[in-house]
Amino acid sequence: MSVRRLSAQQPDSFAFSDETLEKARWWMTKYPPERKASAVIPILWLVQKQEGWVSEPAIRAIGELLGMPKIRVLEVATFYTMFQLEPVGSAALIQVCGTTPCMLRGSEALMELCRSEIGPKDKLSADGKFTWQEVECLGACANAPMAQINDYYYEDLTPDSLKAIIEAFRAGETPKAGSAIGRHSSEPAEGALTLTDPSLYDGSRAVPITSLPNAREPAV
Amino acid sequence: MPIAKVNGIEVEFEPGMTVLQVAELAGEEIPRFCYHERLSIAGNCRMCLVEVKPGPPKPQASCALPAADKQEIFTNSPMVKKAREGVMEFLLVNHPLDCPICDQGGECDLQDEAMGYGRAGSRFDENKRAVDEKFMGPLIKTTMTRCIQCTRCVRFATEVAGVSELGLLNRGEDAEISTYLEGAVTSELSGNLVDLCPVGALTSKPYAFNARPWELTKTETVDVMDGLGASIRVDARGPAVLRVLPRTNDEINEEWISDKTRHAVDGLARQRLDQPYVKIDGKLRPASWGQAFAAIAARVKATTPDRMGLIAGDLQDAESMKAAMDLFRSLGVASIDCRQDGSVLGTGPRESWLFNSTIAGIDEADAIMLIGANPRLEAPVLNARIRRRWLTGKLLTGVIGEAADLTYRYNHLGTSPEAIRQFVAHGPISKEKPMFIIGQGALNRPDSAAVLQMLGAAAKSMGVVREGWNGFNVLHTAASRVGGLDMGFVPAAGGRNTHAMLAAAEAGELDVLYLLGADEIDTSRLGKAFVIYQGTHGDAGAQAADVILPGAAYTEKPGIYVNTEGRTQIANRAVFPKGDAKEDWSIFRALSEDLGHRLPYDSLEALRRRLIQDHPTFGQVDHAPGHVSAGTFDVGAIGTAGEVADTPFRSPVTDFHLTNPIARASVTMAECARSLKAARGLLAAE
Ligand code: SF4
Ligand code: FES
Ligand code: FES
After folding, report:
1. CA-to-CA distance for B522 and B539, rounded, in angstroms?
2. Which residues pair with B310 in a beta bridge?
3. Site from B176, B180, B182, B391 to mutate, A interface, most A CB atoms within 10 angstroms
4. CB–CB of A1 and B180 under 8 A?
5. B11 forms bridges with which residues in the sheet?
């Protein structure tokens, strides 16, 4: 990780889309009105969903929406590395995990591929379609090595499979997420060895429930 | 009260105190960087580690740990020593060893504590981190590589100054302090950030590389940049005043001062009047004191007392005003005035021109109505106190006047005197300690006598003055004003006030006008009057003068000032007057011989004795009268009934940085004013 700064290129303005604003207001209702600033992280996230990254005008707009000083929003935006302060690739933001399990299983080769296919780390590719980053453990170590691409995990990668995925994104497709070698979830590559009883999965052993924990109204 | 043991010695303490405070009660010094008694607790530097029993067997941050009954606190155990050495070593891992080129050297907490609590060597061989410099405005120079992330600056800006402009960006090793997009800090209190920074990350830009602390002569004295009379220390080297720092005074300024107090001092070296001048053939020419006095005597003797006037300015010490007043009275002149802004105060009881509840009284107030005042610009340190009280949630605030950004929220009750009317027959309010703060913006209007009458009636009706509490407060902007009013430096019967003197000069009815440091008058209205300007700077008054007599600035003479609370304070001389300039009282003493009305005092001591004899309040040094006379003060009887105009109140301070001749001569203040305008322009454009 290195010092994160706001991008030198900034748009002139930012406007919440209707959808973003509606969701933002929903988050704000979760806190007492005088503490609505608590919604800053989800709203930064929503803005990033809308724009792909968090721009300076967006930080100001969030500050205004939440009645908090813009420097406080900037503090949060620079603290959490999940907030992108530079524009990211229009087709894919590839976050390759570089932490120990993934590294032992070959993440360095994946990053080498990214470097040759896309360009330097943390930089927008020349065609503007890709950005790749090295990130810390994303919690899918059992399927190492892996990368998060946009909103999904792509697991059990090899340079070849990652290359195919990148090609697909470049062609405007969205390749199937999950394990690249086709294994289900994180079960052994040769198929499940435990929990094989079909009754576990057909619902026959489920206990009917009448209410959900923490639900406001009892579920009928 | 609970009792704890500090290094085996029992101390009683008040519930709610922290371990650090209890250890201090016991006389133990706890090293610290992030903790500051006037800021919230951050607990992030870990320098204050101590050992506490009962508790986990590890060192504890004493600044953030509440003390408990029967606790045993150790500040000198081997564990504590080792812990401090460890913290120190960590802090120094990323701190540059650049003390020789650091302005904080010699007064650096990190330096001192490294000496006191650190190890001799370092085990760190790797590269140190480096942090980009940040721009923070014309007053603060940054060397952010030195920052230890104590966040004192962030907390001060947010909590005390009330401008959330500083923040800690990024995290971990990359954490750095910055303003938003490196904008200038827009607080009037920003200079205090430099004092608070325990290392050399934030240092004073105007003072950069000027001097080492041990080269300076330090003089404890009193500030004159506003009506508060903050306690300051003037640091000088040779004849030059290099900087001003605050002294702790809980009654007035705690440990803050405004940027003007701190940074206007470069104005003391510029545009100074250092010798007398006399206008000959329309041009001011250097003259000797004798020639100047002769020129004055000739004009004075050629006219009559009713065609003469005397106006005193805002920075004058009481002694010079007393000498001037005695001289002019003895000449038979009735037109004398210390209110160059045209204020109506000065008749009636002393309470009618004081900040009666005292500045510290703000900490108890539960309702404050600001009338025609913008305390943020007129007295920033006082404004910070109001803000602090407001933050407790126990203060109701209202404003009649401009709706300015005061760093706290308030009910805007109106802009003009009409808004006061609803309170005239309001009836007692259900507050224990209500307060009016009346600014000069309400008192220097043509209709101010009537405004004052309405305010008095409202104060009476609402119960602002009651037994044990006097919430009737006047906020002065001029350091000399209360002293002037206390000694009766106002027109005698048949005399003219400032406005009338200017009108008379314009109409050719005034032959001689003596301006004692008075620069805030409209000098284009002086007509053909013979103008004598006695003062320190080539400002408005001197431009209009026929004779200039060079006086001493507040750092160059001992002097008495009475602050807005009525607190008499004695200022000390830090350096000598410039060139041929003399202490102001002695100029009048010398002039009085030439005018044939010798003043009856030959020394400052004799003058002070006389002053106290004639006006006993000057004898109560460092004492604010407060509410003692609340029972006999009839607030309903002040002012005079009359029509009020429906024009909005306007604070006399529009350019905070440029309110007096010293500040106007200061390059730093000019730079601040420019930077603030730019920041405002930016805001307006947004
Ligand atoms: S700049 Fe100074 S006051 Fe601010 S966090 Fe750094 S060391 Fe502390
Ligand atoms: S180490 Fe890569 S996902 Fe955990
Ligand atoms: S002074 Fe206690 S942690 Fe900094």
Report:
1. 12
2. B336, B514
3. B180
4. no
5. B4
Around Cβ B242, how many Cβ atoms within 10 Å? 20
Residues of A whose CB is below 8 A from B179 = 71
**Residue B263 · residue B234 · CB < 8 Å:** no
In chain A, residues with a C-beta closer than 8 Å to the C-beta of B132 are 3
A3, A62, A70: best mutation site toward chain B, by most B Cβ within 10 Å? A3
Please indicate whether residue B153, judged by its CB atom, sits closer than 6 Å to ligand 1: yes
Rounded Cα–Cα distance for residues B223 and B219 (Å): 12
User: What is the DSSP-derived secondary structure letter of residue B172?
Assistant: G
Beta carbons within 8 Å of B332's beta carbon, 6+ residues apart: B305
Task: Say if residues B245 and B262 touch (Cβ distance below 8 Å).
Answer: yes
Q: What is the pLDDT of residues B381-400, one digit of tens each?
A: 999 999 999 999 999 999 99
A58 CB neighbours in chain B (<8 A) are none
Residue type (1 letter), B361: G
**Chain-centre distance for alpha carbon A119:** 21
Asked if residue B197 has its Cβ within 6 Å of ligand 1, the reply is yes
CA dist B466 and B460 (Å) reads 9
Q: Return all residues near B344 (Cβ < 8 A) that are at least 6 apart.
A: B443, B444, B448, B449, B452, B639
Look at A74 and B164 and tell me if their CB atoms are within 8 Å: no
pLDDT at B684: 54
Contact B164 A72 (CB under 8 A): yes
Q: Closest Cα to residue A83, out of A56, A44, A122, A37?
A: A44
- Tell me the ligand closest to B65's alpha carbon: 3
Q: Collect all residues from A whose CB is shorter than 8 A from any CB in B.
A: 1-4, 6, 56, 60, 69-72, 74-75, 78-79
Q: How far is CA A13 from CA A6, A172, B374, B425, in A?
A: 15, 28, 34, 52
Quick one: which of B424, B485, B425, B478 has its CA closest to B451?
Answer: B424
Phi and psi at A30, nearest 5°, equal -75, -10
Is there a contact between B174 and A3 if contact means CB atoms under 8 Å apart? yes
The answer to whether the Cβ–Cβ distance between B167 and A72 falls below 8 Å is yes
d(CA B540, CA B164): 37
What tens digit of pLDDT does each residue of B34-67 get?
A: 999 999 999 999 999 999 999 899 999 999 999 9
pLDDT given for residue B683 in this prediction:
56
* Rg, C-alpha atoms of chain A: 21
pLDDT tens-digit series, residues A80-124? 999 999 999 999 999 999 999 999 999 999 999 999 999 999 999
- Residue that is written with structure tokens 């947004």 in the block: B686
The pTM of the full predicted model, rounded to 2 decimals, is 0.93
**A92 vs A37: CA distance, rounded Å:** 31
Residue where the block lists tokens 């922290």: B18
**Long-range contacts of B620-624, Cβ-Cβ distance < 8 Å, separation of 24 or more:** B620/B568, B621/B568, B621/B569, B621/B570, B622/B567, B622/B568, B622/B569, B623/B567, B623/B568, B624/B251, B624/B358, B624/B359, B624/B563, B624/B565, B624/B566, B624/B567
